[in-house]
Amino acid sequence: MPVRWARVRNLLPVLSLLLIACGAAPPAAPIEPSAPEAGKRAAVHPPGCRGSGSAVAPPGSDEAARQRARAAARGPDRWGKGYRALQPPPGFHAVPVSKDVADGAADDEIETTPTPADLVAKFEYDDHEYISVVVQVFDHPAARPEGQSLFRHAAKSFDANGEDITDEMADDSFVNWFDRVAEFRDEKGRRIVEWAYIEKGCERAELYERFIEDGEHLWHVSMEVMPTAPEADLLLWMALFFDAPLGGPAPADRRGLTGKQTTR
Prior knowledge:
Elements (H helix, E strand, L loop, with lengths): L1 H20 L41 H11 L18 E3 L24 E7 L6 E10 L8 H9 L21 E6 L5 E10 L3 E11 L2 E10 L4 H13 L21
Antiparallel strand pairs: 1-2, 2-3, 3-7, 4-5, 5-6, 6-7
Helix pairs in contact: 2-4
């Protein structure tokens, strides 16, 4: 009996991920009813889809994971090396963002995928059967209008609901579109905005994004996680993709969205 129970216990993490992927809640502690919830916003669904998402287990506070993430980001081969020199962390692989036609190859032999003009790097996670992670790095022109906050510019220009923002709306009126938002500067004075929210459509997805004004560049890093991932992994990935390339700080309230169920 002890051996059989040990085998069952070892299968629980896999069972949890299977249940999440299928839209059911995993066998974990319930979400505290007193936990704060972000304000709701207009739902954004993939065409032809109307999913409600799935509940997942709430995270625990893990300061040790934050420290490990910070230490990994500050490695000499990563810290401050720039986004064009960014190498995939363990578990990720780089995805070509452009493809040239090989000499002598027929056009119909080459598969082409439209690539956004500002996309400079793309990475995918392939270290887990039930977790999908796609990271994209964009190099936009730094064209923020004078007097406009970086948060407002990023939301209007790159958020799915940006077209709903009018000149009459104050920044605070759409902060609750996101589960968390941070706007700050690094030690070099560069403006930074970082936000996160949950998209609910056919499948649950967590979206983490960071924007950094760097001279004539507006670096935009997007990390989509489906359906979710362990908090320690999320913190590590954000440190490596968001902080390390330009040597920037993490916001004080950075965290994963496990357990959140807000509709976007």
